[in-house]
Write a structure and sequence with these properties.
The protein is mostly helical. The protein has one domain. Helices cover about 95% and strands about 0% of the residues. Helix 1 runs antiparallel to helix 2. It is elongated and about 50 Å long. The two termini are about 15 Å apart. The relative contact order is 0.17.
Length: about 60
C-alpha cells in the first residue's frame, strides 16, 4: 500500500507541474498532459481504496 501512496504522490506532482504550466503560460500541450495525469490519479486512488479496504478487513 505504501507503493500506491508514493505512486499517487508522484502522479499528483506531475499533474501540478503540468496544470501550472497551462495556467501560467497558456501551454495547451501541458493541459493535455495534466488531464492525462488526472485520469491516472483517479485509477491510482481506486487501487488505493481497494487495498485499504482489504487491509482494514485483516
Amino acid at each position: 500500500m505504501k507503493d500506491l501512496v508514493e505512486k499517487t504522490v508522484a502522479l499528483f506532482e506531475s499533474f501540478k507541474k503540468e496544470a501550472e504550466a497551462q495556467i501560467e503560460n497558456g501551454n495547451k500541450a501541458a493541459g493535455t498532459r495534466a488531464r492525462k495525469a488526472s485520469l491516472e490519479i483517479e485509477k491510482a486512488m481506486k487501487e488505493f481504496r481497494k487495498a485499504s479496504l482489504e487491509a482494514s478487513k485483516k
